[in-house]
Amino acid sequence: MQHSIATVSLSGTLPEKLEAIAAAGFDGVEIFENDLLYFEGSPRDAKRLCDDLGLKIMLFQPFRDFEGGRRDKLQHNLDRAERKFDLMQELGTDRILVCSSVQPDVIRDDAVIADDLHQLAERAAKRGILVGYEALAWGRYVNSYRHVWDIVKAVDHPNLGIILDSFHTLSIKDDLSRLSEIPGDKIVFLQMADAPVLAMDVMEWSRHFRCFPGQGEFDLPAFLAPILQSGYHGPLSLEIFNDGFRAAPTRITAADGLRSLLYLEETTRQALQASSANLENAKSAEALFAPPAPSRFDGVEFLEFAVDDDAARRLATWFQKLGFAHAARHKSKNVDLYRHGSVNLILNAEPDSFAHAFFVAHGPSLCAAAFRVDDSRAALERAKLYRARPFESRVGPNERQIPAVRAPDGSLQYLVDKGLDGRSIYDSDFDPLPGGVAAAARTTLSAIDHFALGLPAETLDTWSLYFRAVYGFEAEHEWVLPDPYGLVKSRVLRSADRTIRIPLNISENRNTAIARSVSTYRGSGLQHVAFAADDIFAAVAAAREAGLPLLEIPRNYYDDLAARFDLEPAFIARIAAANVLYDRDPDGGELLHVYTEPFEERFFFEIIERRGGYQQYGAANVAVRLAALAQTRARAGQRGASWAD
Amino acid sequence: MQHSIATVSLSGTLPEKLEAIAAAGFDGVEIFENDLLYFEGSPRDAKRLCDDLGLKIMLFQPFRDFEGGRRDKLQHNLDRAERKFDLMQELGTDRILVCSSVQPDVIRDDAVIADDLHQLAERAAKRGILVGYEALAWGRYVNSYRHVWDIVKAVDHPNLGIILDSFHTLSIKDDLSRLSEIPGDKIVFLQMADAPVLAMDVMEWSRHFRCFPGQGEFDLPAFLAPILQSGYHGPLSLEIFNDGFRAAPTRITAADGLRSLLYLEETTRQALQASSANLENAKSAEALFAPPAPSRFDGVEFLEFAVDDDAARRLATWFQKLGFAHAARHKSKNVDLYRHGSVNLILNAEPDSFAHAFFVAHGPSLCAAAFRVDDSRAALERAKLYRARPFESRVGPNERQIPAVRAPDGSLQYLVDKGLDGRSIYDSDFDPLPGGVAAAARTTLSAIDHFALGLPAETLDTWSLYFRAVYGFEAEHEWVLPDPYGLVKSRVLRSADRTIRIPLNISENRNTAIARSVSTYRGSGLQHVAFAADDIFAAVAAAREAGLPLLEIPRNYYDDLAARFDLEPAFIARIAAANVLYDRDPDGGELLHVYTEPFEERFFFEIIERRGGYQQYGAANVAVRLAALAQTRARAGQRGASWAD
């Protein structure tokens, strides 16, 4: 299908926006009038710019408060429209969006409104223009697509049709059943927007919190599928009002926009197939984006840290205290494998490598994660079709090239499968060290349960969409958590089978632990790695014996735990003695977990035991961890600079 | 009255919070349980900390979901309460807040709830504890103070009373008429919070957007006055959940909190006097804070810029192009007066002065503003009582010490009156320059209409409260305006007679013009000065002749203006030729204004003509100015660094 985006969705001046839109691969744009208003060139200049960039101007918008106004204003309103038609001719576009009136004194009479729109359509016909009438969710009288459609049908003019916008329909939880009765050729334009589910005034919600499909929580395939079935084959367009987008880098937002439309196409195709709907009319359904299906994942194969020799020694000490053995050394590079049971951590200190560049930019940090997939070639193909940038590393003779892509922050994600020869990547690329395997055989940790990233606040939507589109991950509902110095938002992206879970954490303020982490890394970075244990007490005992610095939990936490849950005093005493935190979900699932102190103020480790199907992350305990950390810092006299300093 | 604040209102660890609360001058605190939970000491340690700081622990809170629960849980809930009573005894506090249940299965029966609360009160009585029952606005069954009061009356137990919270009452626009029937001694505690008026879910509103009295839009005196009349003489306490406060410097927030309670006392006293209410019972009304009344203002006497000799020359050039003459030189300092009619601008390049320190820290910038008042001594006294920091400058022989205070960013605000001798401050401190007065006599500008400040986002509440409390200014409703690289919020603080108007502008994002300005100044700073003109065209003609660089407005703006308003083509041609922007208010008042280009990317000037009682600031045109500026910058290839760089 053709892809379009409204200029209002991006930051910057009109030329900056158009260049980014073309670079992302869109076919066309909706010109939002204000962007033109503040453009220093003429409308003809704007058209020339679009022509040069290969962009079609698909729509001009919005034209407000036209229909059902005071009768003595009708002539003025029609004149006003003629001026906009002039402007459209200069722009070379033939479609205009007329949104339903928000005037308090709008005439609440369909016949009057139909008559006004008829007059407008007559004038449009003389200019070869198509008028699209759209319901604003907060329109004073007309506020649903159903009402618009009734009026458009009544006017029955070839130059008047309907414009559908997913936000205005889904935000008011409107009945979708009549979408399929609108013939495709009466749909002048189709705007797609997602949004997080928020309990707030719909206009404010619309104007500040819309997001790209796949970044929010709306069921967009349920909206789009019947429209495609009714024969619509025009463009899919994005019209997003979002405070974050207004401040985000233009090109990145535009690239996200295109990816979101591909994702919308794929998920809508799946919905159409699942419903075994009659696809005869949905010609455009055939044209929907169809990448290879998402991989079946089987956990995190390894995490790789960028280090130099010195940082490698420091971090290796931590790994060893966590029970990891130095298991192997890379055949041709300054790279070491640490292993505990089937859990792998890699330290990469190779000069002139990708990891080295990462180390120089960010210090000791997570530079790559490897996911176990069933078919790495198909996984890479899917990622590339979703515009992820592939990465090929320098390999030595007989070493394996592992398929990889760059995540939004430039770190790598490897896609590892069993391969045709059944040998592991370590067999081909590493020399085992004597004793390493034996030492790592006494296992208390069974897997990487999850690893959390701290992100710059404005990148959360980019990351969410990336994981959903590129890997078919699912996004869990967002949590807001208190930090002693601000609020932190957390959203988990995970594979369908939950073998890979990646909490993404952001902070709007700059004094929180997350903000500090983002600042430390100069970008996004690892916040913590959580290892799964079958027996948390055994794991803690082993870790303590090895000298792992566990975070001390205030006694008051356990007193309160006793008041909150019916727990045996002996059990509370046991977890308190081990600094183990506790959480329980409504179904009785339980979480027991411990945190380490941070490694050089960068990241920390967690050991967790899930009992009885507990699927969360102990969010209730995050505050006590942050407070304990803050106290550690306060003791050390560290605190973020304040604006009053 | 006594002043208290809930620990949840501030950022930081418990010790940091308590120290800031004591330093601000509060008498006591509400201990919010989570703060204790994350405190590494025991409750006894927390009490000792408070004792050492001279703070009384006035309340322990919250105790949730107690009443009307499942019958088989009642014993557990009572046990839970006993544990909290233990904790309260260690803390040495005798009051606990029980908030109404939010459980979906709460028993909707007043008799059951009353019985539960009776049992709780009986247990509390044995421990010498007072239970305060409070309605959450989103309580599942009990959600208004009126319902709480009915139940508390029915229980009729000496150890059970009501807790009132202004947010929970005003947010649901509850009927206030029954507040006066609650005897003062049945009010266990009184919590005061303000909030901006927002159309959103009340719980979200409450948890993220509360603010201190005087920072929001609630009519708090209408809430507090009847409570005082009913004989309440306990403390006024602040319980503020606010995302900004969670991230703001603890001590500044605490100081704002105390100032806000003083302001609440003053405005409530005024409300009581205005209502000529029966004050017999309102003993505490006598104790309400009573500073000297706000000044009568008469405009801005001068604006003073911190410069060095070089910056003085550059800025003087701009002043001269604006029509200002070099009118006088300070008798003992490197300070110059520029004058246009009755408008005064001062350049201060004196070494070792306050202005010099300001220049070193912020570059060429606004370091002081002088307000004309009727009685500068009373104005200073009021400011000091509101905890503003007075400032005394070094004066030479026979020079006048002008009363001054420091604004929240450390800049000065002078309070200038006619003085007893009738001589102006310039007569006593300056030597007039020959020709200066004559040159400045050809006036096109009549006054400083307003001057706008760009602030770090988290300081807006501090500044709003400062102007309202210290000067009795009024706060206008907040505007949100688009910038090409983000959104900008603007709130005007002004004197009652509008002779002083100060728009305060903030940006949450870091790429907007405001954010750039804040970054340039390393703090808050002048964004622009708007001069009033009686004839904008004459003023523009004079400015052009003098070579003042006016901002060029895109032609498309004027085309759209013609579509929006019924304006004569000749008029539009005239304003377009002069780069004059236009706005009209619903009552027909008109604004005509021009902008200059920015002075060294720091601030700019505006010339405005108000017609027909127009009282706004041309917000509709801010976007075109910002876009025009952004285009100027884009042409110059400047753009904020992005996170993806």
Automatic annotation (TrEMBL), chains A, B:
Catalyses: 3-dehydroshikimate = 3,4-dihydroxybenzoate + H2O
Which InterPro entries does the entry mention? 4OHPhenylPyrv_dOase_N, DSD, Glyas_Bleomycin-R_OHBP_Dase, Glyas_Fos-R_dOase_dom, IolE/XylAMocC-like, VOC_core, Xyl_isomerase-like_sf, Xyl_isomerase-like_TIM-brl
A GO biological process of this protein is: 3,4-dihydroxybenzoate biosynthetic process
Q: What is its EC number?
A: 4.2.1.118
- Tell me the superkingdom of the source: Bacteria
Pathway listed for it is:
Aromatic compound metabolism; 3,4-dihydroxybenzoate biosynthesis
- The residues listed in the UniProt record as binding a divalent metal cation, with positions renumbered to this chain, are 134, 165, 191, 239
> In this protein, which residues make up the domain named VOC?
296-418, 447-596
Q: Which UniProt keywords apply?
A: Dioxygenase, Lyase, Metal-binding, Oxidoreductase, Pyruvate
Q: Note the CDD domains from the entry.
A: HPPD_N_like
Matching entries from Pfam families are given as: AP_endonuc_2 (PF01261), Glyoxalase (PF00903), Glyoxalase_5 (PF14696)
Q: Where does Mg(2+) bind?
A: 450, 528, 606
Cofactor needs? a divalent metal cation
MF-aspect GO terms? 3-dehydroshikimate dehydratase activity; dioxygenase activity; metal ion binding
Tell me, in a sentence or two, what this protein's role is: Catalyzes the conversion of 3-dehydroshikimate to protocatechuate (3,4-dihydroxybenzoate), a common intermediate of quinate and shikimate degradation pathways.
The similarity annotation says: Belongs to the bacterial two-domain DSD family.
Give the protein name, as stated in the record. 3-dehydroshikimate dehydratase
